[in-house]
Design goal:
It is a single chain. The protein is an alpha+beta fold and 148 residues long. The protein has a single domain, classed as Winged helix-like DNA-binding domain superfamily/Winged helix DNA-binding domain (Arc Repressor Mutant, subunit A, Orthogonal Bundle), CATH 1.10.10.10. Helices cover 66% and strands 12% of the residues. It is built from six helices and three strands; from the N terminus they run H-H-E-H-H-E-E-H-H. It has a three-stranded antiparallel beta sheet with strand order 1-3-2. Strand 2 and strand 3 form a beta hairpin. Helix 1 packs across helix 5. The longest helix is centred in the first third of the chain and has 29 residues. The radius of gyration is 17 Å and the shape is globular. The model has no long low-confidence stretch (mean pLDDT 92).
Length: 148
């Protein structure tokens, strides 16, 4: 790895940690949801029939299927998600976004959009933001679950 590649990687990791910390705090205090929970709900909101298997969610969130199970349990108690069995395969179950979940994710997305605008305000032009989005997007090109 070249020095510039190493430096870019470290800067991306540092920026990711800062963003996660900043966004998690506000999402928790305003919506009572963790950042990963909001991302899970956003993936379900984008999915056909507003449902995904735990394995598909795990791939999109870059976590294990058991982590998805631990994440969905409290969301189920809040009424944000439900479970749905596959009628053709008893081994397969889906996590389904409920009406309550749709409302909660819409509210949380509005907060995320506002926070993103605040993050870049007075620092970046629209062109620079678009360029950054394109460049960083190349790192995850071809992976499932683009939420942008």
């Amino acid at each position: 790895m070249t020095n510039s590649a190493f430096s870019a990687t470290l800067n991306l990791l540092r920026a990711t940690a800062r963003l996660e910390e900043r966004f998690a705090g506000e999402l928790g205090s305003v919506h009572g949801l963790a950042l990963k929970e909001v991302l899970l709900l956003m993936h379900l909101d984008r999915a056909p029939l507003k449902r995904l298997s735990r394995v598909d969610l795990a791939r999109r969130l870059h976590v294990s299927p058991s982590t998805v199970t631990r994440m969905t349990n409290p969301l189920e108690k809040l009424g944000c998600v439900g479970r749905e069995a596959d009628p053709r395969d008893a081994r397969l179950a889906y996590v389904v976004l409920t009406e309550t979940g749709q409302k909660r994710v819409a509210e949380a997305r509005t907060t995320l959009e506002r926070m993103a605008a605040d993050l870049f305000r007075d620092r970046w032009t629209q062109s620079e933001i678009a360029t950054l989005s394109d460049l960083v997007g190349r790192l995850t090109a071809g992976q499932p679950g683009d939420l942008a």
